[in-house]
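Backbone-to-sequence.
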């Protein structure tokens, strides 16, 4: 933490303390606010999409469907691939794979990672592809822990599929929802590898998130002291978000 109160360049053996200057600079840094906005935009979108999709898959694959175990494996497999490898795979898919494939059908497409308006959404799509597997397994485990007698009783009472899900299944899945929302959101807020190996924060700063901004500031621009200050600020933000999220969902569990 003491490095954040210096103008250390990451190389010099001695520190020159500058007080709170780095923190004052951070508040006035428009690039910081832009990176923070991209980080939360990415994290919130990813959290919503991953949880909605993984819950839908869990409900589908928990049913007695032919080949459901094989499908569980297929949907889980991307989660065991390293993020760096996923970045390289999808970087190729976006730049050559999809354009070449669709080109044979007469459809002209370009990589979203090269478009400032689409790049962040392209990264979210990759993260969704890789991130659905683990939450899906947690939801399936939660579904299998719900007594079958409750669903049977609801059916006898005339409750439809939606009412049974809304009043029985979803409330009993509340702990699983809390775990998945917390894991996905905190993981998404700390995203670095995927952005770094695909766009490095570009194009035109459109995918710069907090982790890549801190890295670039500390090591590419040799402003390690300022980078440390940014790290401390981001750490506080993560702690506050985590506390707020746990409190919110724990209260929601009680209400359900």
């Amino acid at each position: 933490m003491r490095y954040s109160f210096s103008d250390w360049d990451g190389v010099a053996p001695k520190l020159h303390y500058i007080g709170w200057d780095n923190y004052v600079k951070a508040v006035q840094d428009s690039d910081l606010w832009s990176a923070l906005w991209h980080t939360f935009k990415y994290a919130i979108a990813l959290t919503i999409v991953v949880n909605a999709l993984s819950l839908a898959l869990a409900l589908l694959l928990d049913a007695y469907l032919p080949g459901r175990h094989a499908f569980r494996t297929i949907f889980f497999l991307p989660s065991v691939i390293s993020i760096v490898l996923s970045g390289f795979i999808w970087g190729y898919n976006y730049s050559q794979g999809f354009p070449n494939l669709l080109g044979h059908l007469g459809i002209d497409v370009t990589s979203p990672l090269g478009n400032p308006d689409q790049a962040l959404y392209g990264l979210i799509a990759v993260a969704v592809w890789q991130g659905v597997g683990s939450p899906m397994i947690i939801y399936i485990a939660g579904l299998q822990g719900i007594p079958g007698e409750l669903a049977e009783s609801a059916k006898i009472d005339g409750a439809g599929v939606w009412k049974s899900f809304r009043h029985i299944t979803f409330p009993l899945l509340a702990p699983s929802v809390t775990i998945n929302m917390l894991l996905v959101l905190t993981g998404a807020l700390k995203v670095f590898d995927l952005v770094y190996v695909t766009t490095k924060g570009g194009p035109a700063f459109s995918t710069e998130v907090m982790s890549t901004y801190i890295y670039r500031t500390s090591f590419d621009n040799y402003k390690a002291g300022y980078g440390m200050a940014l790290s401390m600020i981001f750490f506080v933000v993560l702690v506050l978000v985590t506390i707020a999220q746990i409190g919110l969902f724990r209260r929601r569990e009680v209400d359900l």
